[in-house]
């Protein structure tokens, strides 16, 4: 059995308005997951104590391997200093993005940039912007066989004052829009990925929409947002191939972030034999 978790950590921000890397480490460790997909992860940012939050979380879960993929490079608190990450930034450059942690060995890592929503101007100096988006895939060797896991964080409709946006600080809507296009783009790209496959992340799409768009099977159904009193599910675990849920999913209030963590145990099932008579 393999425990999977997806968690939008909101750069480690607690309900008390304080970012505490130690508290984030304890929260992630308490999930006791073999694979953890993280979104809204800071690295070397001032607002999160200049910590490498992916490394902090990886150590907390005892990960054999982990990878952080920045979507934004530079200080997120300085509008003119941040830019879309190219993927070749030196390791000491501040970043913000997604991460995957695995207790199982990783055969290969893959990164994919997703289409960016086009900014548009609104009335009274307001502008709707988007953050760069990406997906990160890992091909795992587990005791039960190979498994591909994918982490992503899709766009949400956002409206903010021009020049005052910070990643992870925007007021989001969670309806279908550019995120559906990104999900379709990702789904097509994943057709060549080895199966079984599990897609985890904050898709900013409610309920059954991600499964309807992709045809993937939901392995976890539980409200995850907002954390204090979750009313709907925008964090998802979707599968293709011989992998099934081994029980009900848990929506876990960790005391960190405005999202709950979504946790589910899965098993890899062998392919069914072909019982058709030979011609």
From TrEMBL:
Sorted keywords for this record are: Endonuclease, Hydrolase, Nuclease
Query: Endoplasmic reticulum: is it a keyword of this entry?
Result: no
Q: Does the keyword Hydrolase apply?
A: yes
Task: Kindly give the InterPro entries that the UniProt entry links to this protein.
Answer: Endo/exonu/phosph_ase_sf, Endo/exonuclease/phosphatase, GPI-anchor_lipid_remodeler
Molecular function (GO) terms listed?
A: endonuclease activity
One GO cellular-component annotation of the UniProt record comes to:
membrane
A GO term (biological process) for this protein? GPI anchor biosynthetic process
* All copies of domain Endonuclease/exonuclease/phosphatase, residue ranges: 5-259
- Protein name from the UniProt record: Endonuclease/exonuclease/phosphatase family protein
Task: State the organism of origin.
Answer: Antribacter soli
